[in-house]
């Protein structure tokens, strides 16, 4: 920057003969870092205005009690950063473009942050959507991962199938046939980066921008937001003891092009979609040409009795896209999910996958395939199902002894809050105390239907700790009352 860009008269009026810089000589940042940093902050905050003249190296060095070379290095750094400009005999000045640099705006809190508490730490007592940390088969999984890494390393250096590795897709198809009653060809299976990746792939492929989509009320807020971001208009449809009220959906939005449902274990209430409602939903889709996305987030890990078959197993018109994930059954860190699409939809989904899909790492895909093929996955699921049922029973018993209003809800327990209790305040204070309940009200859209409560995950609440954890949480609830 040239000296003539500043008027000498301005230099004189804005001269700063003394800079108040406190130096810490006990170690830590160098003196050069401290001097340049203090001047940078003064410029950013507007304390040093554009064109303000800075003391000479000699004057500032004398003032601070440091060597002139130290001040010179600090000034040179600021010149390189275009914060100040040297003008020969006219002195050193704040660059016009650097003065009062706008501070970055405060970032808003992530949407639905309470669904991922203490990210990336955890899991935490009462946290939803994560497996039991203390029951994770660490040694077995380490061996499986090592085997998957070796297999991936030995594979040809080439682009892979955008649908996912054939070995994993074949294992998923075989597993679904046994555990979910869903007969499908591996060609219908697409491996994705978790549930979100599967949902994105399906919504892109269907291309229903501007159409209406049924969403459950209450229902998973992130899925509802994904539908909205895909350009669809969510139409909330109430859920009762039989699951999604199909008749209410038809009355509310008869021409909807999509329905998002959790038929196996409704999120968050935990009810299973009744057989009559399943047939009614499938009949509506076949009659109107609508699509159904089945979020089978728990798969066969439903704790109450034998898991209900997948909704897609009853689909004869080819209208159901079945979405599953290994996040709840193995670990969310896998970021591995899948979607099974009807045969007629395969070419379109493959087209989109070729353009957008990033499947998980080969090593992860082969590790999951080995885990399923060796039968260890099914054994792990049976063991976890027994454990989670015991832990839910222990949590329910503790809450009953403490005279609370509660109800089992899948792998969670729904705790109703007394009137006047601030739900948001409870969640905030609980997180500060090392607990991670999920608020119920964000699962609702309609204000008249909205209810206040807490969803308590059972997976990381050992029976021996249930009473103490409940007492701690209820103490927080009482403190947040009117």
Strand numbers in spatial order across the main sheet: 4-11-10-9-8-5-6-7
Task: Tell me the series of helices and strands, N- to C-terminal.
Answer: HHEHHEEHHEHEHEEHEHEEEHHHEEHEEH
CATH fold field value of the largest domain: Aspartate Aminotransferase, domain 2
Tell me the number of helical segments per DSSP (H or I, 4 or more residues long): 15
Mean pLDDT: 88
**Structural class from helices and strands?**
alpha/beta
CATH H level of the largest domain: which superfamily? Type I PLP-dependent aspartate aminotransferase-like (Major domain)
Can you describe what's shown?
This protein is an alpha/beta fold and 482 residues long. The chain has 3 domains: 3-98, Arc Repressor Mutant, subunit A, CATH 1.10.10.10; 138-374, Type I PLP-dependent aspartate aminotransferase-like (Major domain) (Aspartate Aminotransferase, domain 2, 3-Layer(aba) Sandwich), CATH 3.40.640.10; 380-479, Alpha-Beta Complex (Aspartate Aminotransferase, domain 1), CATH 3.90.1150. The chain is built from 15 helices and 15 strands. The chain has an 8-stranded mixed sheet, with helices on both faces. Helix 3 (57-64) crosses helix 4 and helix 6 packs parallel to helix 12 (362-373). The longest helix is centred in the C-terminal third of the chain and has 26 residues, at 376-401.
In short:
This protein is of the alpha/beta class. The chain has three domains: 3-98, Winged helix-like DNA-binding domain superfamily/Winged helix DNA-binding domain (Arc Repressor Mutant, subunit A), CATH 1.10.10; 138-374, Type I PLP-dependent aspartate aminotransferase-like (Major domain) (Aspartate Aminotransferase, domain 2), CATH 3.40.640.10; 380-479, Aspartate Aminotransferase, domain 1, CATH 3.90.1150.10. The chain contains 15 helices and 15 strands.
């Amino acid at each position: 920057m040239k000296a003539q860009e500043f008027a000498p008269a301005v230099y004189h009026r804005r001269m700063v003969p003394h800079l108040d810089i406190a130096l810490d000589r006990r170690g830590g940042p160098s003196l050069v870092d401290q001097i340049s940093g203090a001047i940078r902050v003064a410029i950013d905050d507007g304390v040093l205005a554009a064109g303000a003249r800075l003391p000479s190296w000699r004057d500032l060095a004398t003032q601070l009690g440091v060597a002139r070379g130290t001040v010179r290095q600090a000034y040179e750094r600021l010149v390189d950063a275009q914060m100040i400009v040297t003008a020969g005999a006219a002195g050193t000045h704040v660059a016009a473009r650097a003065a009062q640099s706008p501070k970055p705006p405060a970032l808003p809190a992530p949407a639905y942050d309470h669904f991922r508490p203490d990210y990336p730490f955890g899991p935490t007592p009462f946290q939803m959507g994560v497996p039991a940390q203390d029951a994770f088969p660490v040694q077995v999984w380490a061996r499986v991962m090592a085997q998957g890494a070796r297999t991936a390393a030995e594979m040809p250096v080439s682009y892979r199938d955008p649908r996912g590795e054939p070995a994993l897709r074949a294992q998923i198809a075989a597993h679904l046939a046994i555990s979910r009653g869903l007969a499908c060809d591996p060609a219908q299976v697409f491996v994705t980066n978790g549930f979100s990746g599967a949902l994105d792939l399906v919504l892109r492929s269907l291309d229903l921008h501007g159409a209406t989509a049924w969403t459950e009320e209450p229902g998973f807020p992130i899925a509802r937001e994904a539908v909205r971001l895909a350009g669809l208009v969510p139409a909330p449809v109430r859920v009762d003891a039989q699951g999604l009220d199909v008749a209410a959906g038809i009355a509310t939005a008869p021409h909807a092009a999509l329905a998002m449902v959790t038929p196996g274990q409704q999120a968050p209430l935990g009810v299973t979609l009744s057989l009559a409602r399943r047939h009614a939903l499938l009949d509506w889709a076949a009659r109107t040409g609508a699509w159904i996305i089945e979020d089978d987030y728990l798969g066969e890990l439903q704790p109450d009795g034998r898991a209900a078959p997948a909704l897609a197993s009853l689909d004869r018109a080819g209208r159901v896209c079945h979405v599953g994930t290994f996040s709840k059954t193995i670990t969310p860190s896998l970021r591995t999910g899948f979607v099974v699409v009807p045969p007629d939809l395969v070419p379109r989904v493959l087209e989109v996958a070729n353009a957008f899909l990033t499947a998980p790492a080969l090593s992860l895909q082969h590790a999951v395939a080995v885990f399923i093929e060796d039968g260890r996955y099914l054994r792990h699921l049976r063991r976890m199902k027994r454990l989670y049922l015991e832990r839910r029973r222990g949590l329910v018993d503790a809450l009953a002894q403490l005279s609370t209003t509660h109800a089992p809800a899948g792998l969670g327990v729904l705790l109703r809050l007394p009137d006047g209790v601030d739900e948001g305040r409870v969640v905030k204070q609980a997180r500060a105390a090392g607990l991670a309940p999920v608020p119920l009200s964000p699962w609702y859209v309609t204000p008249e239907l909205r209810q206040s409560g807490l969803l308590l995950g059972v997976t990381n609440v050992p029976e021996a700790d249930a009473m103490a954890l409940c007492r701690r949480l209820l103490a927080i609830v009482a403190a947040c009352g009117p």
